[in-house]
């Protein structure tokens, strides 16, 4: 018999807040984290056809979480993950000194890894030669090192891995951590996603692909999922980390249970490098698998945190996928995209949006899709436009859809001790 799995701790570093309360308050207030790029100089990028905006993390200080000497050995995506993980552990009131650390695991995904490290050391190689490349170059850039460093920093010696599935990385990592706990291979998992790719090379690549919004003169209204005037995603950064536990372990230590995780589904589009499968059929199958895994009927789902990237095909096809998975109930669901406020955090998106699921269930309030001004006839569901909404949310679902055709869905519900 599979173990029940519950959420007991949440930690976040984001463009709208570097702690849980600030992040959640900002979401409910409809605050946008998008603004002009400050992380690097855009002077060499042509205008007006290049994106000049992003949802950057502001005023992040790693020193409350990481020793100063260690910070220099870590790319920023690792620093974000450690900070969010330590906040999640504190939120869970999990005293690791009292835990069997063989029973505590880590599973944190990143879509790209240490892009800042790659670019800075490539410049050193070209300008000053190979001897100037950091001896920490490789362990700073590899995407698994967020999981590795969180393990080192916390002493967690249980199952440890990382999903690298583009924008689905965070959700896949949470889903796999859920499976580990269900099977009894650990009692606690620290899990989620992290990303830090607001860099010249990342921007150049996405600009060349014409994937990002160029609403540079109005950045806070640039990310507008499901709106007819959407023109591309806005890149974000940060980390979202959850503490998951077996129900038995959580009850034994008297933990505060935020929500129960009950389902996980994943599929492949087998279609295209970057474009979603026609009519979102891969996302549809992912949602159906997750609901089946949770032993839930479509009519039991109250809210979907959509992938909702503010790109033409994603929003249209995800809407079609929801209709395909839920039938007539699709029109009774609340569907919102918090990327309208946070931007698209790529591999961290699933971690941050899983936190949104848990908080929505805990507080019974659904964050809005802001910047929803011009309805699109092809996107005709209830997207919770512009203002957060009080609602009875017992069951909630989150989608993450990544380049390469990776689809992942998780399901949470209100905890009931039965």
From TrEMBL:
<dbReference type="InterPro" id="IPR017568">
    <property type="entry name" value="3-oxoacyl-ACP_synth-2"/>
</dbReference>
<dbReference type="GO" id="GO:0005829">
    <property type="term" value="C:cytosol"/>
</dbReference>
<dbReference type="GO" id="GO:0006633">
    <property type="term" value="P:fatty acid biosynthetic process"/>
</dbReference>
<dbReference type="InterPro" id="IPR014030">
    <property type="entry name" value="Ketoacyl_synth_N"/>
</dbReference>
<feature type="domain" description="Ketosynthase family 3 (KS3)">
    <location>
        <begin position="2"/>
        <end position="414"/>
    </location>
</feature>
<keyword id="KW-0443">Lipid metabolism</keyword>
<keyword id="KW-0808">Transferase</keyword>
<keyword id="KW-0444">Lipid biosynthesis</keyword>
<dbReference type="InterPro" id="IPR020841">
    <property type="entry name" value="PKS_Beta-ketoAc_synthase_dom"/>
</dbReference>
<comment type="pathway">
    <text>Lipid metabolism; fatty acid biosynthesis.</text>
</comment>
<protein>
    <recommendedName>
        <fullName>3-oxoacyl-[acyl-carrier-protein] synthase 2</fullName>
        <ecNumber>2.3.1.179</ecNumber>
    </recommendedName>
</protein>
<comment type="function">
    <text>Involved in the type II fatty acid elongation cycle. Catalyzes the elongation of a wide range of acyl-ACP by the addition of two carbons from malonyl-ACP to an acyl acceptor. Can efficiently catalyze the conversion of palmitoleoyl-ACP (cis-hexadec-9-enoyl-ACP) to cis-vaccenoyl-ACP (cis-octadec-11-enoyl-ACP), an essential step in the thermal regulation of fatty acid composition.</text>
</comment>
<comment type="similarity">
    <text>Belongs to the thiolase-like superfamily. Beta-ketoacyl-ACP synthases family.</text>
</comment>
<keyword id="KW-0276">Fatty acid metabolism</keyword>
<dbReference type="InterPro" id="IPR014031">
    <property type="entry name" value="Ketoacyl_synth_C"/>
</dbReference>
<keyword id="KW-0012">Acyltransferase</keyword>
<dbReference type="InterPro" id="IPR016039">
    <property type="entry name" value="Thiolase-like"/>
</dbReference>
<dbReference type="Pfam" id="PF02801">
    <property type="entry name" value="Ketoacyl-synt_C"/>
</dbReference>
<dbReference type="Pfam" id="PF00109">
    <property type="entry name" value="ketoacyl-synt"/>
</dbReference>
<dbReference type="InterPro" id="IPR000794">
    <property type="entry name" value="Beta-ketoacyl_synthase"/>
</dbReference>
<keyword id="KW-0275">Fatty acid biosynthesis</keyword>
<feature type="active site" description="For beta-ketoacyl synthase activity">
    <location>
        <position position="167"/>
    </location>
</feature>
<dbReference type="GO" id="GO:0004315">
    <property type="term" value="F:3-oxoacyl-[acyl-carrier-protein] synthase activity"/>
</dbReference>
